[in-house]
Amino acid sequence: MAGRFDPLTRAAVRGGRTDVPATSAPVPAPGGLPATAAALHRSWAPEGPVDLGLTLGPLRRGPHDPTFRVTADGSVWRASRTPLGPATLRVAVDRTTGTVRAEAWGPGAEWMLDGLPGLLGADDDPSAFVPRHRLVHASHRSRPGLRLTRTGLVLESLIPTVLEQKVTSDEAYRSWRRLVRRHGEPAPGPRTAADLYVMPDARTWALIPSWDWHRAGVDAKRSGTIVRAARVAARMEEAAAMPPGRAAARLEAVPGIGPWTSAETLQRSNGDPDAVTTGDLHLPGIIGYALAGDRDADDATMLELLAPYAGQRHRAARLILLAGRTPPRRAPRMYRNDIAHL
Fold it and tell me: How far is CA 202 from CA 44, 66, 131, 136, 206, in A?
């Protein structure tokens, strides 16, 4: 649990940590919120502990993501575009019983609730992971509620990942906010979710004019990749049901999508525990420093260090990031740019 001795560092955020308030108050009963439309409800009892902040944290694109929100009662809210239409999901864990309670609104509410166990890691098998390093063991032991989420929605993870190519996280988060708020739609549901937005559908992404991409700070290379992916959205979404190798090949068939983008996408859409991110500016140095004291490690060195975790390399990388052992900075941060002002 986060506290004064567990600061929320950039590495922890990269590892998917989102702090969800711990509350001793009982979880509000289903239907206990003022709503503008009828909600569907579901309760689910997971086999082990589930930490909402660690499990759903990778789906949050920055502290002001218009599709993701954490509230003071310990609930996590998500707005998604499902195959059946827009939906808003509210999920909370009863800390006394461990039971998960969820409510959903909108045309895609039933789809969201059907996928709730997968979203919270029911398809994940933490027992398959065996720590091989002291730091990884300590990080794993202190986070028993970590599960790998599986959304089943490819475009939802692919587009913000493309926005993160070759820019700082802050720039990518800003672009995501601007595009979703301008071209998406308000999320269905209660007044509590009034500031949530559902991302645009594939057709809308493909029709965003060049000047709106520019105003959002997105260059032609990234916007072109998103438009090409949106035009074959149905084929992209099929990757959610494919084995890892075929899924990556399907995504990488689109020009502009490489191993870095496909891995970051499949970690979320497919819950792939072995989708290790290569081609990253910082990750090899962080893992090299944490496991071998080598801050100058490259992809080859990183993959060699992660080899003992074959089949679980993504989980191992997340645990290393969450441990927070990063090399001391020896250069200024990457310059933040905004081409919208040009």
Answer: 32, 18, 41, 39, 6
